[in-house]
Design goal:
mainly alpha; 2 domains; 5 helices
């Protein structure tokens, strides 16, 4: 069993953390909205930045972000190719 002093110290730390984040907690309970998606996207962008070992210009960096975060499908699906082949030439998009 934990010592009373350790339990009291842990309780004080929890209370301090709750006080520090009170506004964010109340906002979540009121609106049920978090910034988790934004944080995830930022983490992915930071990973692109780190894994590239630096870009000299902004444009290649932006393109790398679009590539990794934009949902680009680099593996064509057989169904998609077959459906495109079934279209008349005048209906196809370039």
């Amino acid at each position: 069993m934990a010592e009373p002093h350790a339990v009291r110290l842990r309780s004080c730390l929890v209370a301090k953390t709750l006080r520090a984040h009170r506004e964010s907690i109340l906002t979540y309970l009121t609106h049920r909205i978090t910034n988790a998606v934004t944080e995830g996207l930022n983490a992915k962008i930071q990973w692109v930045k780190y894994s590239s070992r630096g870009f000299r210009d902004r444009e290649p960096f932006k393109l790398a972000i679009y590539l990794h975060c934009g949902g680009v499908d680099l593996e064509p699906r057989a169904e998609k190719i077959l459906s495109l082949n079934a279209l008349k030439p005048e209906d196809r998009q370039s």
